[in-house]
Amino acid sequence: MKLKDIQRHLLTGVSYFIPFVVAGGILIALGFLFGGIYVYEDSNLAAQLFFLGKDAFNVMVGVLAAYIAYSITDRPGIAPGFVGGLVANRIGAGFLGGILAGLIAGYLVDAIKGIKLPTALRSLNAVLFVPLFGTAIVGLLMYYVVGPPAIWLNTTFTTLLNNLGTTSSVLLGIVLGAMMAFDMGGPVNKAAYFFAGAAGEAGNWAPMAAVMVGGMVPPLAVGLAMLAAKNKFTEDEQGGLSGCFIGAATFITEFAIPYAAADPIRVIPSIMVGSAVGAVVSFLLGVTLQAPHGGLFVFALSNKPLLWILSIIIGGVAGAAMLVMLKPDLKEEKK
Questions:
Q1: Residue 19: in which H helix or E strand, if any?
Q2: How many CB atoms sit inside 10 A of residue 332's CB?
Q3: d(CA 144, CA 150)
Q4: Closest to 182 in 3D by CA, of 258, 256, 272
């Protein structure tokens, strides 16, 4: 199992994953645009667009895992990988859990395929034994082995945030922003978001403003980095440039996931720094936001709309600058 092989498998998964992110993200954005911030409470056309986007998001981690497994072991890995990814999504393990599910499924199915069976049973291997045992083992491993750490992370970070809530706003901003960018929908991200929601219900809307900045910065940072240094991104990655700006404008952090999945060592630290910077600026400027979602569509609900947008831009520039510094030119990387 070489690092370059794993990177190739991740890139294969990402290539199939991108259409779900793009379609889902834009449909959700259109739902908010035509139906308002509480579009999910209606049953009109705007709501259906929103829920179509959510449906795409609900399966995208499964698709990522399925095609990582496919890259490793061909078609027999698709079902175990897909189901493992769906379990990762259900237990809140996010895209990092999906990557893990895909790798487990791929190498496990490869091992199952290598088991020598009696001649009479060989014909059943591809249609029965591999999908049955592969799916069952991967699904159970995700639930019983990966699930508890994901829940522990969520609980631990929730406790940490509750303890930080009465201390320095700068420290709270750093932690909230970094958490929002770390796993982009996973347990760490959810802990930050739910903390901000609880603070808002108690009448303190400053954490929500910072959290939304932290969620909008990752795709913005990636988009700005691509504009500044196209030679560090593949043509496929550059094709997602407009999606990154749509994600940044609509608080859909997931548009940054394909880039993080393809190059986690460089992308994740960069967007964490950018989100932390943006969240701290939001706190320091005294910004609040009385809305749980919507991105720029709800900027008027901020007490300082222009300063809130400035926080997002500053965070995006900081994250982009770090990403440009860390990523090598594609020609140098090939050497």
A1: helix 3-35
A2: 9
A3: 10
A4: 272
